[in-house]
Design goal:
It is built from 20 helices and no strands. The protein has 486 residues and is mainly α. The chain crosses the membrane at residues 12-30, 42-63, 84-106, 112-134, 141-160, 166-188, 279-302, 322-342, 354-373, 379-401, 413-436.
Amino acid sequence: MESIAKNYTYNVIYQILSVIIPFITVPYVSRVLGAEGIGINAYTASIVQYFAIFGSLGIGLYASRTVAYKRDDKEELSKAFWSIFTLQCVLCSISFTLYIIFTIFFVDKYKLIQVIQALNLMSIAIDISWLFVGIEDFKKLIIRSIFFRILGVVCIFVFIKTPEDLWKYIVISTLSVFLGQIVMWAYLKNIVNKVKITFKDITSHLKPSLELFIPQIAIHVYLVVNKTMLGVMSTTQEVGFYESADKIIKISLASITAIGGVMLPRISNSFAKGEKDKVSYYIYTVLNFVSYLAIPFMLGMIGVSRQFTGWFLGSEFAKCSTLLIILSPIVIAIAWSNVMGMQYMIPTGRTSEFTISVVVGAVLNLGLNLVFIKKFQSIGAAIATVLAEIAVTSTQMYFLRNDIKISKLYSNLGKYFISGLIMFIPVTLIGCFLGPAPKTTLIQVSTGGVVYILCLFLLKSDINTFIFSKIFNKLYKRYLARKAEV
């Protein structure tokens, strides 16, 4: 479990950096570009994502699982890598061509922006991060991510000065990702060999990738369609409100869902070896852990929303506080569906049931958007998102009712909710007394964290005790080591 903890730490950093560094720029960018500029970026990015779905074809998930299966045999790993990568390049080339044709002949508004967004498709074509996920080498991904994200932030503050610099902002955002993908190729020679592959080797990966293609479509539908439909049925300003609130929610989710990237290859490898007891142990442990994090994150998000958005996004984005409150339940829903779907169904080959669950969410989200967006705009899109995510999680719980007994977690869940609700009281009161300011959010988060942890100590939470005993033991060992050196 130590390597899992280390990889989880790396992946937490990776996931947070993927969101938090652009998130650091939000106060600046939101004031320079405004809700209109942010909305245009989100809307045009949502269009390119539909072509990206075809370009990726479920390869990322499938490739990580396949690499995890074959990582102990370098020759088999090499053959799998080159054949999957070739398939990925062919599909992305087709997707890129179709996107350029679409942009030239069918796009009237924001044509230049749409052309720049095409760089996202090129990034997907050369993306081999799935190889490093499959072999559980997260450190290299972190180093890459840190460098290019920081470089991107510097460029944003240097070059983005007026609303007319929107195209520069998108170039910086997309180019930093593209360059980051290129860098990962420098490590390749030490992982795989150059081997000959046949047409049959390439096409052998097509069918299993297609099995994950439908759920990928469904996932993208209820992640992206809200922004597209808002742009069509409402205004780009409403897209900007939704995008900003959604980005804040993703910060909370990053540290929680990061465990998925670590556990998918580990569970895949254990399942391939027939270690079913180990798979079951992993799932219950991870479900307990994500609940430990997700419940206070959801309640804390509600408690800090009004004061936080006031100083962080600016007065133009006041509506985002309401959106944050509405969207907050998806933190728990996605945390659970990530464990049951991505970490259990996918590694154990239950793709069809996973597909059904995400299709249910996508269809529901699409239908609710048609009803709610016209009347409630971004608030309607937020309501549709929450109901869709709950539907996905509920469907997966139904399919896994004989495999995962949620009743085993009831005692722990009760402790997390009780502690979270107690925490919510001082967090909300602090916000009411101090008002919107950075120090308010800092005090709210610090107080909330301390109250939550202390309550769990009083309620004798096993995972809380385990985590802090580990931290204490490591600090104590370092203290003894330094004392011995002196």
